[in-house]
Design goal:
With 160 residues, this protein is mostly helical. It has six helices and two strands; from the N terminus they run H-H-H-E-E-H-H-H. Strand 1 and strand 2 form a beta hairpin.
Length: 160
């Protein structure tokens, strides 16, 4: 199973919005330049993410996009479903009930078990990861005094 450029670029967009979280709307033009991605494509992806309730948009001179919720509350499964659709290695193992199709082999199929296990493993990995897990922490100011207290004096011998 592989994800398309929609998934890849959309996740990169969401990570950038996560980095801007709490500082107001981010410009797609700036994100496109920073990530070396086509702005027009990011606009399409942002509209889909907005429709899914993951981002909000603001119009105007200082407008742009921002996350609708805290990055710790956004599961990567939500993001990829919004971008790619249902997670399914095979149509018979889709995780979206409205996309389920009837297969004439379902009653005798022993392979479906494999596809369901693959789907569940992928879904579990994505559910277990929040957007915040992909957003690097902002550097904190260094507390010089605390830093100095933990330094080993030059020439000292340490034992493990």
């Amino acid at each position: 199973m592989s994800f398309s450029t929609k998934g890849e670029y959309g996740v990169r967009l969401m990570v950038q919005l996560g980095r801007h979280y709490g500082s107001g709307p981010a410009s797609l033009a700036e994100i496109a330049a920073e990530e070396d991605l086509p702005r027009a494509y990011l606009e399409q992806l942002a509209m889909g993410l907005r429709d899914a309730g993951l981002v909000v948009s603001t119009r105007g001179a200082h407008g742009g996009y921002e996350l609708a919720r805290d990055p710790r509350e956004i599961r990567m499964s939500e993001v990829l479903r919004a971008l790619e659709g249902p997670i399914a290695p095979m149509i018979c193992a889709t995780d979206a009930p409205d996309h389920a199709s009837t297969c004439d082999r379902t009653s005798s199929c022993t392979v479906n078990f494999l596809w369901v296990r693959v789907r569940d493993a992928i879904t579990g990995a994505l559910e277990g990861m929040a957007l915040a897990d992909l957003v690097p922490l902002r550097p904190r100011p260094i507390d010089l005094e605390a830093s100095m207290a933990h330094q080993i004096p030059q020439g000292a011998v340490t034992r493990s």
